Amino acid sequence: MSLDVAAKKTLLRKIPHGLFICGVAEADHINGFTASWVTQGSFEPPLVVMAVRADSTSHGMIERSGRFSLNVLRADQKDLAAVFFKPQTAVGGRFDATPFKLGELGLPILEEAVGGVECVVVGQVKHGDHSVFVGEVRTAVLHQDVAALDLASTGWSYGG
Ligand SMILES: Cc1cc2nc3c(=O)[nH]c(=O)nc-3n(C[C@H](O)[C@H](O)[C@H](O)COP(=O)(O)O)c2cc1C
Fold first, then answer.
1. Fewest CB atoms within 10 A around its CB: which of 21, 116, 128, 137?
2. What pTM was computed for the model?
3. Is residue 158 part of a domain?
4. Measured on CA atoms in the order 148, 10, 34, 88, is the torsion positive or negative?
C-alpha cells in the first residue's frame, strides 16, 4: 500500500472550512489565532472539534487551561483573519486590532464578529503535528446573524 501524496493533497483541500478566531486564556494572559480546522461533533451535549498546531503558543495554553473560545467571523472580516495568523510582537497583541470582551469562562469574544462560543475541553487526541481538541460548548453569544467568512472565499489554503 502506498499513499498517492498528490491525490491526498488535492482531495483533503476540498474539505470545506469556515474561518474562526480561537481565543485562549491562561492566568492573566489571553491569546487568539485564526483556525479553520473546526467542525461540530455532537448535538447533545453540544461539542465542537478543532485541530491546533502542536508548536503554536495557543496549543499549550489550551492544554493547561482546558478551555477555548471560537469566534465566527463575518464574511467581510478577511483582513482580521489575516491579523490573527500573522506573527505578533507579544502574546495577545493581535487583539489590538479589534474590540473584545471576556465571556463567562474568561475567554475572548470578539464584539464585531457574528458571535462566539466558549468551550471546556472534554477530549484531546495528541498525534501528529496538530492536536485535536474536543470542546463542550458552555456559552454562546450572537451579535449579528449575518453571513460568515469561509476559507474558499479568501483564496487561502490550509490543509492537504
Ligand atoms: C487560512 C489559515 C487557517 C489556519 N487554520 C489553523 C487551524 O485550524 N489550526 C491551527 O492550529 N492553526 C491554523 N492556522 C495557523 C495559525 O493561525 C497560526 O499558526 C498562528 O500563528 C498560531 O498562533 P499562536 O502561535 O499565537 O497560537 C491557520 C492559518 C491560516 C493562514
1. 128
2. 0.98
3. no
4. negative
